[in-house]
Amino acid sequence: MYIDIFLDTNIYRQLGQNFYEHIDYKSLENYCYSSGSEIVVAETVLREYLDYYEHEVLNKQINEIEKAFDKLKRLQKFKKVRSVALQKPADAQLVYIKKKLTDAKRKIGANSMLTEGHLIDFLVDNKRENKKDNTRDFLIWLTVLWLAGKSQDRSVALVSDDRIFTDNKIMNDLQAKFKLKNIEVYPSISSFLSLYGFKSPNLTAKLIEEAIPMNVIEKELLDQKDAFPSHISRFYYDANREFKLEEFKADNMHVESFYAHKNKEIGKVEIIAHVMVHVKMVFETESQQVGLAAYLLARAKEDFYLETFDMSGRPIYDEDVRFSFRLTFDENTNAITSTEYLDFFPDDYYIKRIQAHIKKHNLE
User: How far apart are CA 343 and CA 323, in angstroms?
Assistant: First the structure.
């Protein structure tokens, strides 16, 4: 089955600044290559993501560097040091990201389905029902409808965790009006790949869990323990030191999601599994108590960091951490034959807090 696959802006953002290196994105590209499907980039998504990348990723970090450098220049030995010119590499990085988004991808801009009447109907309904302007969602949906109508011999998939694409009446009515039944919406890349990838009744979450080595998870966590305080509090954002760990526990490991495909080169089934592990780390008491107290008093109320300290001033990480593994499955023996650790994501909680904030304030 040939499928045209749209990714919403929120999916690109969740994959991280280097979205093209994320295992799910690379797996989606591999799926497209082997199945004849395509990743399609809507003009609305392209512009919105580039705007986010320019202002929230590049400009924000450049501003932080420039502010820090200005403080250094107040010191005697730094007064004659030249400022680093960052705008030129920032412009080049933006061009690079645009290329990563669009290279070997199908790009679709405005289309004939965007009529004044349809837009007015949506805007009036949206103003009555929501606080947020969802026009960009409507434009993405029109692009999806247009492609679905143009290529009814292919399926069209939209990957987005924004509920408006499944719940909005105006959008649903438009799909029904044009009698388009070849559209499906998926909340994540992994949910899409789990449906269209390799399937076997013997390949289960339980089988995968039994093949995941807990000692590898614990070793990776302990090897990277000094990075965890920066995920607890922005107070440690620039910290570059060793932190003494006083308590450590990793348990409640379970498969969050997985998908599989046949790798013809090795003649086996490859699996990508996302595994959740509850991690508790308690670090030694912060020595800079006065500075920490001042920071906690002055910090923004909703900066989405944990900011968890006990009464003694010990920073505490007590959250689920997502790990990614690559496994191989032998169809003949119905067994997992190899397991390879890929990465883990201690800031998963941060993304969930932002999503909860968006839902609470009706910003979807």
Answer: 6
Q: Does the structure show a pLDDT above 90 at 84?
A: no
Q: Write the pLDDT tens digit of every residue in 210-236.
A: 999 999 999 999 999 999 999 999 899
Place of tokens 């409507």: 138
258 contacts 337 by C-beta, under 8 angstroms: no
Positive or negative, the CA dihedral 333, 339, 342, 347 is: positive
CB 215 within 8 A of CB 223: no
What is the rounded distance in angstroms from the CA atom of residue 313 to the CA atom of residue 288?
9
Q: Which residue has the tokens 């009464």?
A: 311
Q: Token match 């719940």: residue?
A: 167
User: Binning pLDDT at 50, 70 and 90, where does residue 341 land?
Assistant: very high
Global confidence as pTM: 0.76
**Averaged pLDDT, 327-347:** 93
DSSP 309: B
3-state secondary structure of 18: coil
200 alpha-carbon distance from chain centroid? 28
Q: Which two tokens stand for residue 284?
A: 């030694």
Longest dimension (CA), the chain: 72
Which residue is listed with tokens 């933006």? 94
- Burial category of 231 from C-beta neighbours within 10 Å (exposed 0-12, middle 13-18, buried 19 and up): buried
Instruction: Tell me the one-letter amino acid at 340.
Output: E
pLDDT-based confidence at 41, cuts 50/70/90?
very high
Name the residue with higher pLDDT: 245 or 79: 245
CA distances to 62, 66, 299 from 53, rounded to whole Å, are 12, 18, 25
Cβ of 321: how many Cβ atoms within 10 Å?
Answer: 22
